[in-house]
Write a structure and sequence with these properties.
428 residues; alpha/beta; Rossmann fold; 2 domains; 6-stranded parallel β-sheet; 6-stranded mixed β-sheet; 18 helices; 20 strands; globular
């Protein structure tokens, strides 16, 4: 019996007797027992940086960019002690803005802001969402190292810019966190479009788990520093979303230290590619199809694809929000639904480019060019079909579909936490 996340609950299932099942799970690491104390220690002893208390001065305008609800970063624990240091440094409440790094996702609700920050913070300080498509809310910083820079005004106008984040495997950045919260979450559409363009996605060094010589990682790091990011606090979480590491300090050095910690947790060896890979997602990422498909693309864009060409990726996801309400999610839907096939999506993207959000269609077209993707348990199966994937109500139906196509004797890999596990094929 296998058990994988599905929304805020789990799905339990068996695989047919003729199939040979294997399990890939990230390393078991003792979580931090006193996270509040660990955060205080990280802020008291930052990496390659003075403390926030020493960086801040009376009269400074301060912006803290925090992750939106699609990220499990415990901002409600990290931000209050930063605000305490700012108060001790003499920074006034009215000079502090907390910006939700929504990128091109939908705006956050008041309930989500409270969930991310705590009610006391939301009621005391100014809390805004990024507005990537609103020219009045953005500052155009021109082109730096071929990067078209545009960020939210409060980011550029801040004399002290701080960001939270979570360091976990990321399909484009190698690992998320670091400058990404600012360079994507607080960016204008031109910067997001540039960093998510086909030349990055097609680059062989833009891979899950790779930060060295990764053009996407280099671009967002440069963009964040140019925007003024001077201090971050990031965490590494285990599969149960418990904090196993927290560090703070200078953005690049701190991020690299956390990536090394994350690799020890997330990377797991597997003997070969598999016919079928079942990837779990769980809340909040499986609330919509745009986010849930990350499980399929992560498994495909591993250093070596985890599923063999012609094989299947099975992703259980309730998708109660449909494809997603943000402009990026809707662009993904339009591209997947309205274009004739995945080859057209790829050729058109390489020839003409695409707006931000639509990069997920380009990414999924690369996956679907090699593999079939089945979404299990979606509340909107018609949207799954429109996006050129196969909707199935149950795991049993999904596995029967695979067996009918490939035969009964198959090797199946179950990855319960597909976004927090980086399978590395041995000997390649």
């Amino acid at each position: 019996m296998y058990r994988i996340p599905y929304g805020k609950t789990f799905l339990e299932f068996d695989i047919p007797p003729d199939m040979r099942g294997s399990l890939a799970v990230s390393q078991s690491v003792q979580p931090i027992t006193d996270v509040t104390r660990a955060i205080a220690e990280a802020l008291a002893h930052p990496i390659d940086s003075p403390t926030v208390r020493k960086l801040a001065h009376p009269g400074n305008r301060v912006c803290i960019v925090f992750t939106d609800i699609t990220r499990a970063s415990p901002d409600w624990l990290m931000i209050p002690p930063i605000l305490q240091q700012l108060e001790e440094a003499g920074v006034r409440d009215e000079d502090i803005t907390l910006l939700c790094g929504t990128g091109l996702h939908r705006p956050s609700t008041i309930e989500e802001k409270v969930a991310k920050l705590g009610r006391a913070v939301v009621e005391r300080y100014r809390v805004l969402d990024n507005e990537a498509q609103n020219p009045e809310a953005l500052v155009d910083l021109g082109v730096v190292n071929n990067i078209p820079l545009s960020v939210h005004k409060v980011v550029w106008e801040a004399e002290l810019l701080i960001a939270t984040g979570i360091v976990e495997p990321h399909q484009l950045a190698g690992y998320s966190g670091g400058g990404k919260t600012v360079a994507v979450g607080a960016a204008g559409e031109p910067l997001i479009a540039y960093s998510h363009g086909p030349e990055f996605i097609d680059n062989p060094n833009t891979r899950l788990g790779q930060i060295e010589d990764n053009p996407f990682q280099e671009a967002i790091a440069q963009a964040a520093l140019r925007a003024g990011l001077s201090f971050i606090i990031n965490v590494v979480l285990d599969k149960d979303k418990q904090v196993v590491s927290v560090m703070a300090g200078e953005p690049v050095a701190t991020h690299r230290r956390l990536v090394e910690r994350a690799k020890q947790l997330y990377q797991v060896s597997i003997p070969h590619q598999y016919d079928v890979v079942i990837g779990g997602v769980g809340f909040p990422k499986d609330a919509n199809l745009y986010q849930a498909t990350r499980a399929a693309s992560y498994l495909f864009f591993a250093p070596t694809p985890v599923v063999r060409p012609g094989g299947y990726l099975i992703i259980p996801a309730p998708c109660q929000e449909g494809v997603g309400a943000g402009v990026g999610e809707q662009r993904f839907l339009a591209a997947m639904r309205d274009n004739p096939d995945v080859r057209f999506i790829l050729e058109d993207g390489r020839k003409n480019g695409y707006p931000p959000g639509q990069q997920r269609a380009f990414v999924m077209a690369k996956v679907l060019e090699q593999n079939q993707v089945i979404i299990v348990g979606s509340q909107y199966p018609e949207l799954v079909s429109a996006c050129k994937m196969l909707p199935k109500a149950t795991m049993e139906e999904a596995l029967a579909t695979v067996a009918a196509d490939l035969g009964a004797e198959l090797e199946v890999l179950v990855v319960p936490q597909a976004l927090l596990t980086l399978p590395i094929v041995e000997g390649i």
